[in-house]
Amino acid sequence: MARICDLDEAIAGIEDGALLAIPADYAGNxxxxxxxxxxxxxxxxxxxxxxxxxxQAELLIGAGCVAALETxxxxxxxxxxxxxxxxxxxAGTLPIKDATCPAIHAALxxxxxxxxxxxxxGLIGSDVLANRPDWRVIQNPFPPHDPIVVVxxxxxxxxxxxxxxxxxxxxxxxGRRRDLFHIAHAxxxxxxxxxxxxxxxxxxxxxxAPATLPSFYLDRIAxxxxxxxxxxxxxxxxxxxxxxxAYIRQAATEEGFRRYLDEHVFGxxxx
Amino acid sequence: METREEEVLIGVxxxxxxxxxxxxxxxxxxxxxxxxxLAQALAPPGPIVSLxxxxxxxxxxDGGRELFDCASQGRIDVFFFSxxxxxxxxxxxxxxxxxxxxxxxxxxxxxxxxxxYFMVPRIILFRTEHSRRxxxxxxxxVSAPGVSAPGVxxxxxxxxLVTPLCHFAFDKAKGRFRLETVHPGHTVEEVLDxxxxxxxxxxxxxxxxxxxxxxxxxxxxxxxxxxxxxxxKFGSDVWGLxxxxxx
Lengths: 271, 247
What we know:
The complex is a heterodimer of chains A (about 270) and B (about 250).
Chain A lengths: L2 E2 L2 H5 L7 E5 L7 H10 L4 E6 L1 E2 L1 H8 L3 E6 L1 E2 L8 H9 L4 E3 L2 H13 L3 E4 L6 H4 L5 E4 L7 E6 L5 E10 L4 E2 L5 H8 L2 E10 L13 E2 L4 E6 L17 H10 L3 H12 L6
Helix pairs in contact in A: 3-4, 5-7
Chain B lengths: L4 H12 L5 E4 L4 H13 L5 E4 L13 H9 L4 E4 L3 E3 L4 E2 L2 E3 L4 E4 L6 H7 L2 E5 L8 E2 L21 E5 L3 E6 L4 E7 L5 H7 L18 H18 L1 H8 L8
Parallel strand pairs in B: 1-2, 3-8, 4-9, 8-10
Antiparallel strand pairs in B: 4-5, 6-7, 10-11, 11-12
Helix pairs in contact in B: 1-2, 2-6, 6-7
């Protein structure tokens, strides 16, 4: 069952070398916890983005916390590219498994089901597949016996995400951000930050229960108000676009990125 | 106000999505999103429009994977991709320029292209730079191939490529683009000079039809406002709209 604790104790559950799963930026990113992880100096993470990421993967990569990455994309969409991700991949210092979104979903779904692998359409003839020796093409055992890609199940060591509220029993309401269900189901354990703790048991409300992740999937829960900043969080707050644009400009150089960390992660510079 | 290049692309895409039921739009695609919202605004309620990155602008309740589940089942009619490179056989590259292992340039990644490109009946390609470096004979990395060998399950693929100069249709049987129309103010010679792949073309390519006055008004009014809320940079660059913390 999950226990409610402070942020540093919560992230202590993410060990060096862990296979860490994080959600896409529309699902709820634990950014306060990510900054705390960087301050702690977490190392050698094998990072899985489900299925894409923006600032969260970018900061962990830039800060040297990531030994290997599996992703379908890391970038800021129309705002620009992710400079530290791009630099690390170009320099060859970040081993990357390029995926495609539904292949990551299929691998997690196999993990959720306790199956060894999952099938996924498409991919045949792509260089995505050509560069994934861990994936296979098998013959569909049923008519029309066509070739189909299968990917091995993924069971992340730990998932980290941000949600709106937890109750005292350690159940977490995720609303329609259903990716968080899938990630938590597939992962060995999950560490969650929430905007707030509520007194009533979420599973006893028939309206809230279907969007509530039961406590037994979760390990540690910490309260982190505005814990997704500067990213958007559901209907609670918007993305801090100006901050992201400033980040992209500043992190164009390694020195600029270090200054960003000093200011916004280590708090060494008055903001 | 003169018609902007982006508005010409939106107009062409708007024509190409006529009569479709469910339009899905992926990451970083303000031009297709504007065309889809315009289709809704012109003939309400119009098509279903689902923006993958924006829970406020889609009807999905099963997370990011629901788009791909829907596409595999045939519930999505149209999707859009761009590419760092687009190849003459319809291949798209969203990953790297040069050698994949030590690239000259690296892009975010393939997103869902390696799956959706096979599954969605009408994929419309758009590229805001029409040049020999973006439209190439052969791409450096195939995120998703334009055509597949016989026997490979494939219910969809590219049907068109829209650029600031012209509209190409994609001939699936030949695995080749064909010039359909050239945008006002541009010429076939310009298209030939700036395209790195060989393509078919008629004796005389027609001029791309412009958006009607009503459609243009809607585009610059309610549609532009909606787009600026989702894509603040695009709204600001194209229509001078300031939203949120972009102000």
